Amino acid sequence: MASLVGSRVERKEDKRFLTGKGRYTADINLANQTYAIFVRSPHARASIKKINIDKALKSSGVVSILTGKEIADDKIGGLIAGWAIRSEDGTEMKCPGNPPLAKDNVNFVGDPVAVVIAESLAEAKEAAEKVEVDYKVLKAVTSTADAMNGDTIHEGIDKNLCFDWLLGDRQKVKEAFDKADKVISIDIINNRLIPNAMEPRACVADYNAASEEITLYTTSQNPHLSRLIMSAFGNVAPEHKLRVVAPDVGGGFGSKINVYNEDIVCSWAAKKINRAIKWVAERSESFLTDIHGRDHVTHAELAVTKDGKFLGFKNETIANLGAYARVFGTVTPTYLFGPCATGVYEIPAAYTNVKAVYTNTAPVDAYRGAGRPEATYTIERLVEKASMELGIDKTELRIKNFPTAFPFKQTLVHTVDSGDYVAGMEKAKQMADYKGFEARRKESEAKGKLRGIGVTSYFEACGIAPSAAVMSLGCGVGLWESAEVRFNPTGQVTVYTGSHSHGQSHQTTFAQIAADELGVPIENIDIVHGDTDKGTFGMGTYGSRSLAVGGIAIVNACKKIVEKGKRVTAKMLEANPEDVEFKDGEFVVSKSNKKKTIGEVAFACYLPGVRDEMKSPLPEGDEPGLKETSFYDPSNFSFPAGTHIAEVEIDPETGHVKLEKYTACDDFGRIINPMVVEGQVHGGLAQGIGQALYENAEYDETGQLMTGSYMDYTMPRADNFPEFNIGYTCTHATTNPLGVKGCGEAGAIAAPPTVMNAVIDALGGQEVTMPATAEKVWKACKNLKKSNAKAA
Amino acid sequence: MKDFNYHSAKDSKEASKLASSSSAFLAGGMTTIPSMKLGLATYKDLIDIKNIKKLSGIKVSGKSVTIGAATKHVEVSNSKDVKKAIPSLSSLAEGIGDPQVRNRGTIGGSIANNDPSADYPSACIALNAIIHTNERKIEAAKFFKGMFETALKKGELIEAIEFQIPEKSSYQKHPNPASRYAIVGVYVAKHKGDINVAVTGAKSCVYNDKEMSKALSGNFSSSSIDGMDLDSSEMNSDMHASADFRASLVVTQAKKAVDAC
Ligand SMILES: Cc1cc2nc3c(=O)[nH]c(=O)nc-3n(C[C@H](O)[C@H](O)[C@H](O)COP(=O)(O)OP(=O)(O)OC[C@H]3O[C@@H](n4cnc5c(N)ncnc54)[C@H](O)[C@@H]3O)c2cc1C
Question: Which has the least CB within 10 A, A160, A234, B48, B160?
Fold first, then answer.
């Protein structure tokens, strides 16, 4: 039987998606349901003096109006940060309370203060307009760089500082810098982004008074984790009385990891009114209240010798958390950021210092890449600048500092098990025709255009993550994953996974893996996910962990099935279990060549006994049935890596940046389905290029979101991109049986510095901030013209 | 969206009779419906004019192209007749919004709305258009009054727009990267007697740049306006482009348009 792993199997999920038969949360309608509208703060910072709901209560169709007072009276808990980070001085991070409905203070535009529940959506909207909230407006803090000098947002949190964290050794770094021939330094901004999943958030909550169970349908990347948080911290219901279902989900990119205010409020309120409640975000609500990403201000320095050896690295960053610290809010700018900031290089001494600050803006949390794009942007912009200042070719300088042996003990935390960075660089150069660039630059020049080339070599730590490691770093849970593989008596297989697919194609790739492991045709394998009533438990999907953690749990559960199958076959065929081999769906006794198919074995497991022809005795100690579970805890992170090269052409008259060529050469370890991986790379690149050239979440000084719709927030479109040139090198991960590493975030991690390095190269080394919009580039072109004129 | 009454008018007369201070005509709905959904506009009555046959269609004579007010952008961009008579007008239509918008939005709705960054108003100015309403004919130069403001009176319905066929013309737009409306769009048209340089997006309302037309009348070449330093004091400034950048873009786009003529 041909192996399915490695082939372009068509996606099982496409039939339902392409024929409009997907079932998203907003498609779910329950009998007798009501509709919720949230009354949200129009102010970035205010105290709530009074809420008057009298008029709204009289509005037609209103069922109930609830505020922060009722939430507090019912002792419903707030939203939480999932990781406890300690400051350099040893003190614990400082987190404010974050009630699901604000009671005393609101801290960003969109912070919900009340929920209006009515018989129809129109009635709920109308009544919501009649809720009168009397605010005392306070001065907002919105700037990342100045947050520590602003008014105190949360009582008791001095300087708006959540923590002041250090990773690395300042003294060693100082010594390295003292020895340096040259110090390269940059100041950069990692612009704030809004994830913009195609499907806005939504939830439908239901209460069954007879069983006392709450069911919550919600747009989540991790239903089990949501249930755990809502139960343990939200106090909504005990876990066994709370079912969380995340059906088809239209994109998450990290924005659907969090439990949100609406999930808790609707679940709690459904029980209170004993009716189902439906809430679907409008796009403007998504802009305002989905978690945002990035938002760092960084000063970084690299100490080098004159021939280009890296000696030391400093990284001083202020990270904006927004109004509250959420699930991955505090780990994203620390352990997902700091360790990767030294990049793919051997740098003997390094440190990263992060000051995480609160501001009156939407909470900032993990967004595709989470911390690693910010890290890669820092080091790769710095290395490119070093190449300009040292006059060493940008690819040579990188190669010079690559590790030569694996495992590679990276400066700050990670031990990278496998990779071949030089091979990746050489292949990328070839794919991009790096040598031919100078000729293309001249051609552009002849047309009056400026052409630039930019390179990024990255690695990232994903496949998160070993429980012992992350818990020692402050994570509130272990990051293992579970799988359950069930055979039916007639031989089909259902695989339950704790991972969640919201675009990742698990139904296909996980089925490919199980098909290969079990020798069962892929049509006979179903992947089930997204329901706490199905499958044991799951930590969900983020951090490129589904395959490298969740996929391995499936492999391990399949292996247990095969082990049992061998014992059962041995008993049936009167052989020794050690003599039974399994291949292509058949158990073969090596000595006699007698065999049983896995289907026959499954059947036998469900019908144990001997009668006439049917001989399926079970071995002693084995129970009937064929079902195995695995909880897999990885022994290490996984470390995809690669080199990307971009070429841009700039029109100096309009400042328009045209991305001419984009080459991505990645090492994702073993590839299960190349078509699916291409899709992941394309999507990641689109978001990374979007960050570099188009996207920007902008608040004004009063905390109003200026880019709150697609009229002003530039979502990239297909015509903004060239045909992507995608290739791979492959070194297998040595820490998991499939040799896989993860591919979901690579594009978003590598693209921003790659594109910006190209833009800045075209602009003769002048800094521009992301996104490189026409006006910024036009100004830089004018400066360039001036300085060229001076030089001539 | 608040409740409203829907009417479908069978002719211009009925449409204008139904109109009141709290009504709007419904053409493509591409501006009206989103404004209502966002609560920026509320109307008691929406008067659908798409079923008025007379308002749709394209007619070409020797001197002019006349487009019915309810003609969709996609029809203008696909029309062989328009492509032949005024190719720049068909490519302008092709550059409006996205396919969904072009499949619903209409030329009459666009100019009645007079968004300062809409494309069609520049075509009207550059191509010496005459706006035919159910009451009168209005010269384009007198039609566009200011930001979202036109010479239309309450209940007055645009029936058609008559464009003069130029000798040469080109429309060059520097789009807002997010909305793809014009940050600056310049429509240059060379007629027998005059040259128009219509600019949209730059100021609160479309205008004919007399300085550039004058320079181009002497010598119709982009070198005549190269490096021109336009006064930016009345130009729009927002997060996508400052007034100075817009002033520079007006010249750049005008040069491109002249080169493309
Ligand atoms: C996403 C998006 C992108 C867009 N991008 C662009 C762009 O790039 N460039 C651009 O120019 N435009 C753009 N538009 C606007 C688009 O061209 C609209 O079609 C136009 O603004 C309005 O036309 P409509 O037919 O939809 O009018 P409607 O929304 O139906 O009506 C708009 C207004 O015009 C009035 N009206 C309509 N017809 C008449 C008439 N015959 N007589 C008198 N009054 C009338 C109505 O009373 C109403 O007040 C965009 C719109 C959207 C939604």
Answer: B48
